[in-house]
Amino acid sequence: MAKKTTNPTKSLKIPAIIIISAKICAFISTKLVTRFAAKIFTTPIKHKVPKREFEMDSKSIKKNIYVPSIDKSIVTYFYGQSDRKILLVHGWSGRGTQLFKIADELLRNGYSTVSFDAPAHGKSEGKTTIMSEFIASILEIEKQFGPFEIAIGHSLGGMSVLNSIKDGLSVEKAIIIGSGDIVQDILDEFVFKLGLKKEISKNLRDFFEKKYEVKMDDFSAYRAAKKIEIPVLVIHDNDDPEVSVKAGIHITENLKKGTQFLTDGLGHRKILGNQNVIKKILEFIKGAN
């Protein structure tokens, strides 16, 4: 959906060819551009595993598991030997090894991690997916590899973790990093980046609700937050160009036991490897409820 950038303060851009194609579709018909936008919205980019993630990738025990509720298979990564397990959930166009620096530190502190390539991501099969399939994958992983003490999610993975807890995932604490919040805001931003009229966003929402037979706003993070009783650490960067810090603040306001940790200058991805962030994560995990 977007090109990779090494500048954490610069928002990811949708390739020009996709924007041009969207405008051509819009010129032809509203129905066509809605279907085109839906296809782009649900198609992640599969990036190659970068060298910095090779160690976690090679040392993890990988297992392909079937998720019956979505009729798809995903690749899981069991990293470490401890029975004290923590679930890691990557974001859109991410991978099961993307949170490797956090995973490495958790291993050094007596935990093991279980992560996965979401449908259509990394080594998992498929070309398209949506958040409900992230959630279904998490709940199936809990059945096969749980219980987990902690769940940690980045970006869309953060939204998925909160929704999974709402839907029955049992953990003692959760940590979300750079999480999105209101689904309609995400659709609005996506349509804006495509250079389309705002009304297409509503059409896109209606398209997904009809196709997946769900209410999109039911997946908004703040709605899940209202139903969560466990302690949750919300980490967000003030300069995140992809997900506004307002999302993290709003989620925290709706949590019963929410703790907020805001950073500066780390953007949306660099935050995952920052030592102060990792230190805060460990303090939260080890602290009393």
TrEMBL record:
Family annotation (SUPFAM superfamilies): alpha/beta-Hydrolases
Membrane-spanning residues: 12-33
InterPro entries named among the record's database cross-references: AB_hydrolase_1 (IPR000073), AB_hydrolase_fold (IPR029058)
Keyword match Ligase: no
Presence of keyword Membrane: yes
Domain AB hydrolase-1: 86-179
Keywords attached to this entry: Membrane, Transmembrane, Transmembrane helix
Protein name in UniProt: Pimeloyl-ACP methyl ester carboxylesterase
